[in-house]
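Duplicate of earlier report; DUF4097 family beta strand repeat-containing protein input re-posted below.
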Amino acid sequence: MARLTGASYAKITVAILLGAVLLAVVGFGASCSTWQPRLGSDTMIGSASVAASDVENIEVDWAAGSVQMHVVDTASDEIELIETGDGITKGREMRWKVSGNTLYIDYGGWFTCFSWGHKSLEIRVPQKYASSLGAVDIDGASGYYNVTGIGCDRLDVDLASGEFEANEFAVRELAIDVASGKSYANGEVTDTLKAHAASGRIEVVSTACPNSIDADMASGTIAISIPDNNGFTAYVDKASGSFESQFETTQRGDGVYVHKDGGANFDIDMASGKFILNRL
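Output:
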Protein backbone atom coordinates (compact mmCIF):
# COMPACT_ATOMS: atom_id res chain seq x y z
CA MET A 1 0.00 0.00 0.00
CA ALA A 2 1.33 3.45 -0.93
CA ARG A 3 1.96 5.89 1.92
CA LEU A 4 0.31 9.29 1.89
CA THR A 5 2.61 12.26 2.26
CA GLY A 6 1.95 15.06 4.72
CA ALA A 7 0.98 17.34 1.82
CA SER A 8 -1.55 14.77 0.57
CA TYR A 9 -3.16 14.46 4.02
CA ALA A 10 -3.42 18.25 4.16
CA LYS A 11 -5.10 18.46 0.74
CA ILE A 12 -7.56 15.69 1.54
CA THR A 13 -8.41 17.22 4.94
CA VAL A 14 -9.11 20.60 3.31
CA ALA A 15 -11.33 18.92 0.67
CA ILE A 16 -13.36 17.13 3.34
CA LEU A 17 -13.77 20.26 5.48
CA LEU A 18 -14.78 22.40 2.50
CA GLY A 19 -17.26 19.75 1.42
CA ALA A 20 -18.79 19.65 4.89
CA VAL A 21 -19.18 23.43 4.99
CA LEU A 22 -20.73 23.59 1.54
CA LEU A 23 -23.13 20.76 2.26
CA ALA A 24 -24.14 22.46 5.50
CA VAL A 25 -25.07 25.58 3.54
CA VAL A 26 -27.12 23.57 1.04
CA GLY A 27 -28.71 21.66 3.91
CA PHE A 28 -30.49 24.79 5.09
CA GLY A 29 -32.57 24.42 1.89
CA ALA A 30 -31.26 27.59 0.29
CA SER A 31 -28.12 29.44 -0.69
CA CYS A 32 -26.71 32.87 -0.16
CA SER A 33 -26.18 35.27 -3.00
CA THR A 34 -22.50 36.08 -3.29
CA TRP A 35 -22.75 39.27 -5.36
CA GLN A 36 -20.16 41.49 -3.72
CA PRO A 37 -19.98 45.30 -3.47
CA ARG A 38 -16.52 45.11 -5.13
CA LEU A 39 -18.38 44.99 -8.47
CA GLY A 40 -19.84 48.41 -7.79
CA SER A 41 -23.39 49.68 -7.83
CA ASP A 42 -23.73 49.91 -11.63
CA THR A 43 -25.04 46.36 -12.04
CA MET A 44 -27.92 45.47 -14.33
CA ILE A 45 -30.98 43.40 -13.40
CA GLY A 46 -32.77 40.56 -15.14
CA SER A 47 -32.67 39.08 -18.65
CA ALA A 48 -30.61 40.98 -21.18
CA SER A 49 -28.56 40.97 -24.37
CA VAL A 50 -24.85 41.77 -24.08
CA ALA A 51 -22.47 42.75 -26.88
CA ALA A 52 -20.39 39.61 -27.52
CA SER A 53 -17.43 41.66 -28.73
CA ASP A 54 -17.12 43.12 -25.21
CA VAL A 55 -16.92 39.69 -23.54
CA GLU A 56 -13.88 37.44 -23.32
CA ASN A 57 -14.55 35.76 -19.95
CA ILE A 58 -17.80 34.64 -18.31
CA GLU A 59 -18.29 34.10 -14.57
CA VAL A 60 -21.55 32.64 -13.24
CA ASP A 61 -22.44 32.41 -9.55
CA TRP A 62 -25.75 30.56 -9.16
CA ALA A 63 -27.56 29.25 -6.09
CA ALA A 64 -30.23 26.77 -7.23
CA GLY A 65 -32.17 25.69 -10.28
CA SER A 66 -30.23 25.40 -13.53
CA VAL A 67 -27.73 27.11 -15.80
CA GLN A 68 -27.39 26.14 -19.46
CA MET A 69 -24.76 27.70 -21.71
CA HIS A 70 -24.90 26.75 -25.37
CA VAL A 71 -24.14 27.92 -28.88
CA VAL A 72 -26.75 29.36 -31.24
CA ASP A 73 -26.46 29.74 -35.01
CA THR A 74 -27.45 33.34 -35.41
CA ALA A 75 -26.38 36.50 -37.19
CA SER A 76 -26.64 38.37 -33.91
CA ASP A 77 -23.54 39.81 -32.22
CA GLU A 78 -25.06 39.60 -28.76
CA ILE A 79 -24.92 37.06 -25.95
CA GLU A 80 -28.45 36.50 -24.64
CA LEU A 81 -29.08 36.04 -20.92
CA ILE A 82 -32.52 34.57 -20.26
CA GLU A 83 -33.74 34.15 -16.69
CA THR A 84 -36.90 32.17 -15.95
CA GLY A 85 -38.67 30.99 -12.81
CA ASP A 86 -41.88 31.21 -10.85
CA GLY A 87 -42.65 34.36 -8.90
CA ILE A 88 -39.45 36.25 -9.66
CA THR A 89 -39.83 39.69 -8.13
CA LYS A 90 -37.65 42.71 -8.83
CA GLY A 91 -35.65 42.04 -5.69
CA ARG A 92 -34.94 38.45 -6.71
CA GLU A 93 -33.89 38.95 -10.33
CA MET A 94 -30.37 38.04 -11.30
CA ARG A 95 -27.66 40.69 -11.41
CA TRP A 96 -25.09 41.04 -14.17
CA LYS A 97 -22.30 43.32 -15.20
CA VAL A 98 -19.49 43.60 -17.75
CA SER A 99 -16.28 44.74 -16.11
CA GLY A 100 -13.16 44.92 -18.22
CA ASN A 101 -13.68 42.00 -20.60
CA THR A 102 -15.52 39.78 -18.09
CA LEU A 103 -19.27 39.20 -17.92
CA TYR A 104 -20.31 38.56 -14.32
CA ILE A 105 -23.68 36.94 -13.64
CA ASP A 106 -25.10 36.41 -10.14
CA TYR A 107 -28.23 34.61 -8.91
CA GLY A 108 -29.46 37.80 -7.23
CA GLY A 109 -31.19 38.61 -3.96
CA TRP A 110 -29.59 41.75 -2.60
CA PHE A 111 -31.12 41.99 0.84
CA THR A 112 -31.64 38.35 1.80
CA CYS A 113 -29.06 35.70 2.50
CA PHE A 114 -31.34 32.81 1.64
CA SER A 115 -33.20 32.42 -1.65
CA TRP A 116 -36.55 30.60 -1.89
CA GLY A 117 -37.40 28.61 -5.00
CA HIS A 118 -35.34 27.79 -8.05
CA LYS A 119 -34.49 29.88 -11.08
CA SER A 120 -33.09 28.94 -14.47
CA LEU A 121 -30.55 30.80 -16.57
CA GLU A 122 -29.94 30.23 -20.27
CA ILE A 123 -26.82 31.75 -21.84
CA ARG A 124 -26.94 31.83 -25.64
CA VAL A 125 -23.56 32.45 -27.27
CA PRO A 126 -23.42 33.27 -31.02
CA GLN A 127 -21.52 30.59 -32.91
CA LYS A 128 -18.94 33.01 -34.34
CA TYR A 129 -17.88 33.95 -30.79
CA ALA A 130 -18.27 30.56 -29.10
CA SER A 131 -14.78 29.19 -29.82
CA SER A 132 -12.73 32.22 -28.78
CA LEU A 133 -13.62 32.69 -25.11
CA GLY A 134 -10.94 33.02 -22.45
CA ALA A 135 -12.16 31.68 -19.10
CA VAL A 136 -15.61 30.30 -18.28
CA ASP A 137 -16.16 29.93 -14.52
CA ILE A 138 -19.30 28.42 -13.01
CA ASP A 139 -19.88 28.35 -9.26
CA GLY A 140 -23.06 26.56 -8.17
CA ALA A 141 -24.58 25.57 -4.84
CA SER A 142 -27.07 23.03 -6.21
CA GLY A 143 -29.12 22.23 -9.30
CA TYR A 144 -28.23 21.31 -12.89
CA TYR A 145 -25.48 22.97 -14.94
CA ASN A 146 -24.78 22.36 -18.63
CA VAL A 147 -22.19 23.68 -21.10
CA THR A 148 -22.43 22.64 -24.76
CA GLY A 149 -20.37 23.57 -27.81
CA ILE A 150 -18.10 26.11 -26.10
CA GLY A 151 -14.42 26.60 -26.95
CA CYS A 152 -12.35 28.45 -24.37
CA ASP A 153 -8.94 28.57 -22.74
CA ARG A 154 -10.22 27.42 -19.33
CA LEU A 155 -13.48 25.88 -18.11
CA ASP A 156 -13.69 25.91 -14.31
CA VAL A 157 -16.68 24.39 -12.49
CA ASP A 158 -17.16 24.41 -8.70
CA LEU A 159 -20.26 22.70 -7.28
CA ALA A 160 -21.46 22.02 -3.74
CA SER A 161 -24.01 19.49 -4.99
CA GLY A 162 -26.19 18.75 -7.98
CA GLU A 163 -25.17 17.80 -11.50
CA PHE A 164 -22.81 19.21 -14.13
CA GLU A 165 -22.70 18.12 -17.77
CA ALA A 166 -20.53 19.40 -20.63
CA ASN A 167 -20.48 18.22 -24.24
CA GLU A 168 -18.77 19.13 -27.53
CA PHE A 169 -16.36 21.55 -25.85
CA ALA A 170 -12.70 22.30 -26.57
CA VAL A 171 -10.48 23.72 -23.83
CA ARG A 172 -6.85 23.99 -22.86
CA GLU A 173 -7.68 23.48 -19.18
CA LEU A 174 -10.67 21.82 -17.51
CA ALA A 175 -11.16 22.01 -13.73
CA ILE A 176 -14.06 20.31 -11.93
CA ASP A 177 -14.42 20.57 -8.15
CA VAL A 178 -17.43 18.95 -6.46
CA ALA A 179 -18.36 18.38 -2.84
CA SER A 180 -21.05 15.85 -3.83
CA GLY A 181 -23.26 14.99 -6.77
CA LYS A 182 -22.06 13.98 -10.21
CA SER A 183 -20.26 15.54 -13.17
CA TYR A 184 -19.86 14.36 -16.75
CA ALA A 185 -17.74 16.08 -19.40
CA ASN A 186 -17.18 14.89 -22.98
CA GLY A 187 -14.96 17.04 -25.18
CA GLU A 188 -11.31 17.93 -25.79
CA VAL A 189 -8.83 18.86 -23.05
CA THR A 190 -5.41 19.56 -24.54
CA ASP A 191 -3.23 20.59 -21.61
CA THR A 192 -4.49 20.34 -18.01
CA LEU A 193 -7.27 18.36 -16.37
CA LYS A 194 -8.09 18.90 -12.69
CA ALA A 195 -10.71 16.78 -10.91
CA HIS A 196 -11.30 17.24 -7.19
CA ALA A 197 -14.08 15.46 -5.32
CA ALA A 198 -15.08 15.12 -1.68
CA SER A 199 -17.63 12.47 -2.73
CA GLY A 200 -19.84 11.62 -5.67
CA ARG A 201 -18.68 10.88 -9.21
CA ILE A 202 -16.68 12.77 -11.82
CA GLU A 203 -16.42 11.33 -15.33
CA VAL A 204 -14.38 13.01 -18.07
CA VAL A 205 -13.99 11.84 -21.66
CA SER A 206 -11.31 13.73 -23.60
CA THR A 207 -10.53 13.18 -27.28
CA ALA A 208 -6.99 14.40 -26.58
CA CYS A 209 -4.54 13.20 -23.92
CA PRO A 210 -3.86 16.08 -21.51
CA ASN A 211 -0.27 16.93 -20.64
CA SER A 212 -1.20 16.70 -16.98
CA ILE A 213 -3.96 15.32 -14.76
CA ASP A 214 -4.38 16.39 -11.14
CA ALA A 215 -6.95 14.32 -9.24
CA ASP A 216 -7.79 14.63 -5.53
CA MET A 217 -10.55 12.60 -3.92
CA ALA A 218 -11.77 11.83 -0.42
CA SER A 219 -14.25 9.19 -1.64
CA GLY A 220 -16.44 8.34 -4.60
CA THR A 221 -15.23 7.75 -8.14
CA ILE A 222 -13.20 9.65 -10.71
CA ALA A 223 -13.19 8.07 -14.19
CA ILE A 224 -11.13 9.59 -17.01
CA SER A 225 -11.11 8.32 -20.59
CA ILE A 226 -8.35 9.34 -23.01
CA PRO A 227 -7.09 8.06 -26.37
CA ASP A 228 -3.87 6.11 -26.92
CA ASN A 229 -0.90 8.41 -26.42
CA ASN A 230 2.89 8.64 -26.31
CA GLY A 231 2.97 7.84 -22.63
CA PHE A 232 2.39 9.07 -19.10
CA THR A 233 3.66 8.65 -15.57
CA ALA A 234 0.96 8.21 -12.93
CA TYR A 235 1.92 9.07 -9.35
CA VAL A 236 -0.70 7.40 -7.14
CA ASP A 237 -0.77 8.37 -3.46
CA LYS A 238 -3.58 6.59 -1.62
CA ALA A 239 -4.62 5.51 1.85
CA SER A 240 -7.21 3.04 0.54
CA GLY A 241 -9.35 2.50 -2.51
CA SER A 242 -8.18 1.47 -5.96
CA PHE A 243 -6.35 2.71 -9.04
CA GLU A 244 -7.37 1.03 -12.31
CA SER A 245 -5.86 1.59 -15.76
CA GLN A 246 -6.72 0.11 -19.14
CA PHE A 247 -3.30 1.20 -20.37
CA GLU A 248 -0.37 -1.15 -20.00
CA THR A 249 1.98 0.23 -17.35
CA THR A 250 5.22 -0.67 -15.63
CA GLN A 251 5.43 -0.04 -11.91
CA ARG A 252 8.55 1.83 -10.89
CA GLY A 253 8.68 2.35 -7.17
CA ASP A 254 5.87 2.74 -4.70
CA GLY A 255 2.76 4.07 -6.44
CA VAL A 256 4.51 5.07 -9.69
CA TYR A 257 3.09 3.66 -12.95
CA VAL A 258 4.70 4.38 -16.34
CA HIS A 259 3.09 3.96 -19.76
CA LYS A 260 5.37 4.10 -22.83
CA ASP A 261 7.72 7.11 -22.63
CA GLY A 262 6.10 8.42 -19.43
CA GLY A 263 5.87 11.97 -20.80
CA ALA A 264 2.54 13.21 -19.45
CA ASN A 265 2.22 13.72 -15.69
CA PHE A 266 -0.76 12.29 -13.81
CA ASP A 267 -0.89 13.10 -10.07
CA ILE A 268 -3.55 11.14 -8.17
CA ASP A 269 -4.21 11.59 -4.43
CA MET A 270 -6.85 9.39 -2.76
CA ALA A 271 -8.16 8.91 0.75
CA SER A 272 -10.55 6.21 -0.52
CA GLY A 273 -12.78 5.47 -3.46
CA LYS A 274 -11.85 4.57 -7.02
CA PHE A 275 -9.83 6.17 -9.80
CA ILE A 276 -10.31 4.69 -13.28
CA LEU A 277 -8.21 5.51 -16.34
CA ASN A 278 -9.96 4.26 -19.48
CA ARG A 279 -8.72 3.96 -23.06
CA LEU A 280 -10.97 5.42 -25.77
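The chain has a mean pLDDT of 86.

Merging into the original ticket.
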